[in-house]
Amino acid sequence: MLSTGALRAHLLASGLAGTVATSREENLRSYRLFAARDPRVLLGLDPDWGWDEAGLLRLMADKCGVSGDPAHRSGPDAIDPERTVRGLDAFAARLGAAAARRVPVLFGTGHPHRLLGFYVALADALSAAGCLVLTPAQGRCVDITTRFGVRTYLLDYVRGVALVREPGPPVDGRVPGAHSHSPLPVRAALETAAEDGGPLPELVVGDHGWVCGAGQLGIEAIGLADTDDPALFVGEAEGQVSVAVPLDDGVCSASYLPLTRYVLNRACLSR
């Protein structure tokens, strides 16, 4: 069992919290684009409130612990590990409640190379607890706008966790999937589930567009988010997202394993 103190120390040592790799310039650029309602950073969210850059900076300072000083324009930024721990506790509570009620759950990630193992362990635990882990629309084509133009991806699942990947056979030895912020994959999954008459998820777990896209449609959604992804924290503030956990979402995949143990233990899902 990982104690809260050990988790806090791991967050700082791994760069998941404390001074993080996501720069101040990246953060401020994302806040500026979000205030302009740029779909690349809205992640499928349609905010109810008017958000300007100053308001977003105040929100992110409160939710994540980034510097609230508007004069801080460059260099490193930070995530408060105490806020990360509190977020993981709330995240675990939602998982535990879903397991107790044995609700259908959908997992999806736009960070398969970093976070796939974290979500797979959670999907395995919820499945063992009697939850139906949904896999709708497997193999469906999704056209996503990227900086290289519109590209067609396939919606796929790895041990119950959805991701998008480029068409063609997977390359042996590589983690499948592509980095994506788009809400289109979760919309496709939910649309197919509804068309097939199958169960719809009562909880969506993931990041990026998977969380915001589901939350915008009224489905309970929880996830992980970096400081340059304000959409999840805006969604949490407005009530579309149940839990947004602040952490660096780009460190090595092994660094998330202690978080898995901590969350499963707090959710009473450890085996």
Can you put this structure into words, describing what you see?
The structure is a single chain. The chain is 43% helix and 18% strand. It has 271 residues and is an alpha/beta fold. Helix 1 packs across helix 5, helix 4 crosses helix 9 and helix 5 packs across helix 10. It starts with a helix and ends in a 5-residue tail after the last helix.
What spatial order of strands do you see in the largest sheet? 4-5-6-3-7-8-9
Pattern of helices and strands: HEHHHEHEHEEEHEHEHEH
Tell me about the largest β-sheet.
Answer: 7 strands, mixed
**DSSP E strands, number:** 9
- Count helical runs: 10
For the CA atoms, what is the radius of gyration?
A: 18 Å
Fraction of residues in β-strands: 15-25%
Query: Which structural class do the helices and strands define?
Result: alpha/beta
Poorly predicted ranges (pLDDT <50, ≥5 residues)? none
Helix content: 40-55%
Average pLDDT number: 96
Which shape, going by the Cα principal axes? globular
Report the span from N to C terminus: 11 Å
